[in-house]
Amino acid sequence: MRILTLAIAVLLPAIAACGDDDDASGPATDFTATLTGGEEVPPVPSTATGTADLSVNDDQITYTVNVTGLANAVVAHIHIAAEGALGPVRLNLCGTGAPQPPCVSGTGVLATGTNGTIVDGAISFDSLVSAMRTGGAYVNVHTDDGEGEQNTGPGDMASGEIRGQVVAE
Ligand SMILES: [Ca+2]
User: Fold this and answer.
1) Would you say residue 134 has pLDDT above 70?
2) What are the DSSP calls for 103-156, one per residue?
3) Residue 8 pLDDT more than 90?
4) Separation of 69 CA from ligand 1 center, angstroms?
5) Rounded to 5 degrees, what are φ and ψ at 24?
6) CB within 10 Å: which end of the chain, N or C, has fewer?
7) Ligand 1 centroid to 147 CA: how many Å?
8) Residue 14: beta bridge partners?
9) CA distance 103 to 101
10) CATH of domain 28-147+154-168
């Protein structure tokens, strides 16, 4: 019995150390969003879809947005608002000029990069991350055919063609 007790005492710290990798009690740093036209406000009848993967590292967000069948993508951002509501742009993802990349239309990687600069400094970076953790942020991809009026339909939705609420992974 004494030997068994000793073995447990030796093993317990090792088990606790292994658990650190899967600690679910800390604040989320990895997020995802599923983008569809139906999530836009009001909904957009687009067949394009997308996924966004976002990872917070210190004061930066590293992101990759993949899309399927999206025409005329011009710009993408993280906005602040709950699902079903519209809110202002707070972080640029693509199409806004260096250092963020241009948006790539079609099927594949729309954009991948790193950014920690809040648009207009309107909120703090920590406030953006807090919103991401509480369902208060969304990824929105805007399209524009560059002709005539805007927001005429898929491929020409300057107000946003596919959108997805940011959720913790
Ligand atoms: Ca147009």
Assistant:
1) yes
2) P--EEEEEEEEEE-PBGGG-S-HHHHHHHHHTT-EEEEEEE--SSSSS-SBTTB
3) no
4) 18
5) -95, 0
6) N
7) 4
8) none
9) 6
10) 2.60.40.200
Domain boundaries, the chain: 28-147+154-168
- Average pLDDT score over residue span 35-57: 98
For residue 153, the CA-to-ligand 1 centroid distance in Å is: 8
User: What's residue 2's pLDDT?
Assistant: 54
Ligand 1 mean position, distance from CA 157 (Å): 8
CA 45 to ligand 1 center in whole angstroms: 16
Spell out the residues 6+ positions from residue 31 whose beta carbon is closer than 8 angstroms to its own: 52, 53, 54, 55, 56, 132, 166, 167, 168, 169
pLDDT at 10: 47
CA of 97 to the centre of ligand 1 (A): 21
Q: How high is the pLDDT of residue 18?
A: 46
